[in-house]
Design goal:
de novo design (two linked rop proteins); 7 helices; 4 strands; globular; alpha+beta
Length: 181
């Protein structure tokens, strides 16, 4: 019921359903994806942050679909930078490029990610869904991760995901109503 009474929850649920709609066809039976969608809707309904749940949903969904993000180091040289310098996520390569290997500046096709965001996403990939809510994303890591999944999803699907616009507006309203955050 809370999905219909709270705009941000409704938008988070609509986003998950829209992605399932685009990725699966009628009569595609996949119990893992069904369980993930059920967990997502229940988590949002229970009052968890729709943005955080969306991050967990998408990282698990892309893994189940065979598009697991390569987050352990640079996909070109294999080196994991320890000094905290940001990486760039390249959707066409499904992974990270270090500053040395990234020949193109950050653009619409790439997403700059801080080490903290990368580490949180790595943990989320490895955790079972019932333990995901233990992870805590800062506002900046949430924005980075959501931007990553927006760019990655649109690259993979080759289409605009309508719910992204509403989710971003929902995030902006939440940030503007909490100036201390």
């Amino acid at each position: 019921m809370s999905l219909r009474e709270h705009y941000d929850r409704y938008v988070g649920a609509a986003m998950a359903c829209e992605l399932i709609y685009y990725w699966l066809r009628d009569y595609d039976a996949d119990s893992n994806i069904f369980d993930l969608l059920l967990w997502t809707l229940q988590s949002i309904d229970n009052g968890n942050s729709p943005q955080t749940v969306q991050i967990f949903f998408q990282i698990k969904l892309y893994t189940l679909l065979g598009y697991k993000l390569h987050l352990s180091g640079c996909i070109r040289c294999g080196i994991a930078e320890k000094d905290g310098k940001p990486y760039v996520f390249h959707p066409a390569r499904h992974g990270l490029l270090c500053r040395k290997c990234s020949s193109t500046p950050v653009s619409r096709e790439t997403v700059k990610l801080a080490m903290n965001t990368i580490k949180l996403l790595q943990h989320a990939q490895g955790l079972p869904i019932d333990k995901l809510m233990r992870l805590r994303f800062s506002d900046s890591s949430t924005r980075e991760a959501l931007h990553l999944f927006k760019v990655y999803g649109q690259y993979l699907l080759q289409r605009e995901i309508k719910a992204w616009g509403f989710l971003e507006k929902s995030c902006s309203k939440r940030e503007n109503s909490n100036p201390d955050r």
